[in-house]
């Protein structure tokens, strides 16, 4: 739990006039007054969800003097199924330094094909910083609260009434007033539906467990490295991410027809010699959104979507936190602009977000197509070109290249595909 002083949202008496310098147009003062008389707590922005997207958005808005409230249905710290790998590009996208919550740091990326080493690269700086999401998310929220944001825990968002500037958020614990709302409520976003936004996206299915080996040697063998294994689950991969006292291990598939992920998970434990005497906790399947439809609207005048709610994640790895952080930054700029000079500016978020991210993700999607869709050939392609692909991918997650740059300047992918296929056939 966060300290009670930090989470308190009950304000004695009436709130200070929140909109005197932010709200565009007229009628704001009357509206606020009516709400105060009705005893409704009002905020500039209500953010639903205390994951990385919601917490960082709250931080950025509060830093600019916006009265932001986070509503979170669980109590923090809460377990979140996630491998907790913060790539170097994600760490760089945080608005503050990553401290306190790092469990392990991967300087080495090890890629395997059916457990046979394919690619190893060690860098002088960590490529992936490992966190547990319960501690990491609580730490992010604490940063937001320190800047002046507020949080209500154990409150479920239900629905939204009213128009931009005069919204009423209905929850499991009463109503809150706000001018704008942000949906940071994950892959099954209820806020998206309340805003009337139909977000079309594909999803990959991931199954992850927290694995406690019977003795520390089981963990030490995986220290300071991120392990990726291809060829052990159809159209997907498996991973081992080391944590302070255990390993986060998972399997992921981009195919809808793959069932029985549990079998793949336990076969993978056997492959890694981790099946004897260990304890597996929190083993559950979860969806990761990717490949959002180009036509998706991600904002209206009333609010916008960030993080998994918006549907952007790396189509190869399922990495979502980097995208959540980037979206939060853009969302905070658009919300500030809308509060200052008109709610009609908020829908612009959709276009800007797509402009900033879609092209890059489409290039990533082409790489994913080679890896996962050409299933008969993918193992051969990975075998023949795994070390080149691995090196490039390390540059992308390290933040020195984007998928788009890789595609345009280095890879020339469409020209390369026949060459890749031919050379894989000949190996
Ligand atoms: C198995 C697995 C492994 C992954 N590994 C990685 C990884 O290593 N690196 C990486 O970058 N990404 C990883 N991801 C993806 C990553 O977890 C997500 O992209 C990321 O959590 C998105 O953050 P978010 O803030 O948008 O949503 P979330 O983290 O899902 O947070 C949403 C929050 O909203 C709350 N909420 C939902 N509905 C409501 C409601 N109605 N009212 C109030 N609150 C509500 C939830 O309780 C939750 O706290 C992984 C995903 C999975 C499933």
Keywords:
427 residues, alpha/beta, seven-stranded mixed β-sheet, 17 strands, 26% strand, disordered N terminus, binds flavin-adenine dinucleotide
Topology:
Elements: H1 4-7, H2 28-37, E1 41-48, H3 52-63, E2 68-72, E3 85-87, H4 88-93, E4 102-106, E5 108-113, E6 116-122, E7 128-131, H5 133-146, E8 150-153, E9 157-163, E10 166-171, E11 174-183, H6 190-194, E12 202-212, H7 217-220, E13 225-230, E14 236-242, E15 247-253, H8 261-271, E16 279-290, E17 303-305, H9 321-341, H10 348-373, H11 375-397, H12 403-411, H13 413-426
Parallel strand pairs: 1-2, 1-11, 2-8, 5-13, 11-17
Antiparallel strand pairs: 3-7, 4-7, 5-6, 9-10, 10-11, 12-15, 12-16, 13-14, 14-15
Helix pairs in contact: 3-5, 3-9, 9-10, 10-11, 10-12, 11-13, 12-13
Flavin-adenine dinucleotide is lined by residues 48-54, 71-74, 80-85, 90, 156-157, 184-186, 190, 206, 208, 250, 286, 288, 307-309, 313, 318-322, 324.
What does this structure look like?
The N and C termini lie far apart (56 Å). The longest helix has 26 residues, at 348-373. Strand 13 and strand 14 form a beta hairpin. The protein has 13 helices and 17 strands. Residues 2-27 have low confidence and may be disordered. By secondary structure, the protein is α/β, with parallel strands linked by helices. Helix content is 37%, strand content 26%. Strands 1, 2, 8, 9, 10, 11 and 17 form a seven-stranded mixed beta sheet that branches. It has helices spanning 4-7, 28-37, 52-63, 88-93, 133-146, 190-194, 217-220, 261-271, 321-341, 348-373, 375-397, 403-411, 413-426, and strands at residues 41-48, 68-72, 85-87, 102-106, 108-113, 116-122, 128-131, 150-153, 157-163, 166-171, 174-183, 202-212, 225-230, 236-242, 247-253, 279-290, 303-305. The chain is globular and about 70 Å long. The protein binds flavin-adenine dinucleotide.
């Amino acid at each position: 739990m966060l300290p009670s002083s930090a989470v308190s949202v009950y304000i004695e008496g009436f709130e200070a006039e929140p909109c005197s310098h932010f709200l565009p147009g007229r009628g704001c003062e009357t509206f606020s007054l009516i709400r105060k008389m009705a005893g409704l707590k009002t905020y500039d922005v209500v953010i639903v969800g205390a994951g990385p997207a919601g917490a960082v958005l709250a931080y950025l808005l509060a830093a600019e003097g916006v009265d932001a409230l986070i509503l979170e249905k669980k109590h923090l710290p809460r377990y979140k199924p996630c491998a907790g790998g913060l790539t170097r590009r994600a760490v760089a996208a945080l608005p503050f330094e990553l401290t306190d919550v790092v469990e392990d740091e991967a300087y080495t990326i090890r890629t395997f094909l059916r457990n046979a080493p394919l690619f190893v690269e060690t860098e002088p700086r960590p490529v992936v910083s490992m966190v547990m999401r319960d501690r990491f998310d609580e730490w992010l929220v604490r940063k937001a609260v320190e800047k002046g944001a507020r949080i209500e825990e154990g409150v479920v968002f239900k629905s939204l009434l009213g128009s931009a500037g005069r919204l009423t958020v209905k929850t499991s614990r009463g109503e809150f007033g706000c001018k704008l709302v942000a949906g940071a409520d994950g892959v099954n976003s209820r806020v998206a539906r309340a805003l009337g936004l139909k977000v079309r996206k594909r999803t990959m299915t991931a199954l992850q467990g927290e694995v406690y080996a019977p003795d520390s040697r089981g963990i030490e063998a995986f220290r300071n490295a991120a392990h990726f294994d291809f060829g052990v689950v159809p159209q997907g991969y498996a991973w081992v991410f080391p944590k302070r006292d255990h390993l986060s291990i998972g399997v992921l598939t981009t195919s809808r027809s793959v069932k029985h992920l549990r079998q793949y998970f336990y076969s993978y434990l056997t492959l890694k010699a981790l099946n004897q005497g260990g304890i597996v906790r929190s083993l559950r399947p979860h969806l990761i959104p990717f490949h959002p439809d180009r036509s998706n609207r991600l904002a209206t005048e009333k609010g916008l979507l960030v993080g998994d709610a918006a549907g952007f994640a790396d189509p190869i790895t399922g990495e979502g936190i980097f995208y959540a952080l980037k979206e939060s930054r853009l969302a905070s700029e658009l919300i500030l602009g809308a509060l200052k000079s008109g709610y009609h500016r908020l829908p612009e978020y959709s276009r800007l977000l797509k402009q900033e991210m879609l092209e890059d993700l489409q290039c990533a999607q082409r790489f994913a197509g080679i890896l996962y869709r050409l299933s008969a050939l993918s193992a051969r392609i990975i075998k023949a070109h795994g070390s080149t692909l691995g090196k490039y991918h390390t540059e992308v997650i390290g933040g020195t290249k984007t998928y788009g740059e890789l595609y345009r300047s280095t890879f020339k992918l469409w020209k390369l595909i026949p060459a890749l296929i031919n050379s894989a056939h000949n190996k």
